[in-house]
Amino acid sequence: MKPHTHKPLGMLLGGLLLSAGASATELVYTPVNPSFGGSPLNGAWLLGNAQAQNNKKDPDALDRSSLLSNQSALDRFTSQLESRLLGDLLAGVGRGETGSLTTDDFLVRVYNGDAGVLIVEITDRLTGEMSEIIVGQN
Fold it and tell me: What residue range is the signal peptide (predicted)?
């Protein structure tokens, strides 16, 4: 046998002996999903990824973009005017002013109540459901 063939074999055995002394560390699982103990900071990222991958549409959901694009110029103008008038009426609440506004969907009435309070009464014309908001004056 040639003397130089023992040298690689010796190096291989020496390497095996040295590697046997290396220690391993414990492998610890850390969950990503906050529902299973992961960081709460991952929640928004996971939800965003899930919504980006979701190609299902709710058949009962309103498609607001089609509602706006199917409106005529007159419908859009009427809607903007109603919003402006309602905004003016509600801005007057802070000054103690009364009044009412009737739209296709709602009846809004602002009037003086007892003890110096203003009452904003909102009635849904379709269902007849009514809400009251009581505003105290300072």
Answer: 1-24
